[in-house]
Amino acid sequence: MALIPLGVFFGGIITGIPVVTGVAEGVAEQKRVNEEANNETRMFKFYIDAVCEGDSPKAQEISKCMVVLRHDKVWLWPRDEEGMPAPAKTGPAPHPFTGFYIQYPDDARSPPELGLVSTISNDPPMLNWIYVDKKTLELRHGNRSTSIEHIVGPWDWSKDERDVILEGFDGFVVVEEEEREDGLKWAVYYDRYEDDLSQGRKVGGRARVKCTLERRLLPEGQRKMQEAEQEKKLQVKSRGGLTTKWD
């Protein structure tokens, strides 16, 4: 299985296009460069914070959380003063979403859809696709074979590049599930049909709170350091038969 570098970016410039005979070519080339620059920006790694409107205790609690990954699901977890997952009562804190946008590899989807990936561990460095289970509408993470039958995109950002959106829609809902031993209880769902998850029937009537997922870019120095460390680990471990959950 081919290993995909975490820090691959695209870019380009235009030089020396004849004014008269190359106008159409110049426009097409500029469009291509703009698209590549846009792709590069979409590959900047980011965390995701939760924001809820309202003054209810649940909304206030959720607004102090960030997106994390564990148990093949997408959750919210309190963030500390540095914007990272707060310590857990027992065991390690869950892994923070640390990801970017990239085209989902499926020739059957036309046009191609922009996917969303995240690291799920630092050592070994592993990537998973973020997707929505087509039956339960809960956000999950997994490899390509696990995710391909479900809602894998198109993911994107809002016009101001702040909020995470799916299918052009900011439709995320946080559901209060029975608290696990590790402290996780706020699971993220996608209200695809804007019916409050079938008036709560899809989640057994459990408490639900509408939530906006906001991107928070990693500081450039931290991002470059992480990418360099992950590239090094991938290169070393690939000689020993590293397997990942990317594909």
Description:
Residues 222-247 are annotated as: Disordered. Residues 1-22 form the signal peptide. Keywords: Signal. Residues 222-234 have a biased composition (Basic and acidic residues). The chain has 247 residues and is of the alpha+beta class. It has a single domain (46-238), classed as Trefoil (Trefoil (Acidic Fibroblast Growth Factor, subunit A)), CATH 2.80.10. Helices cover 21% and strands 28% of the residues. It has helices at 23-42, 57-62, 144-147, 196-199, 220-238, and strands spanning 46-51, 65-70, 73-78, 95-96, 99-103, 114-121, 126-132, 139-142, 155-157, 164-166, 172-176, 186-190, 208-217. The strands form 3 sheets. Strands 1-13-11-12-3-2-4 form a 7-stranded antiparallel β-sheet. It is globular and about 45 Å long. The protein starts with 22 loop residues before the first helix and ends in a 9-residue tail after the last helix.
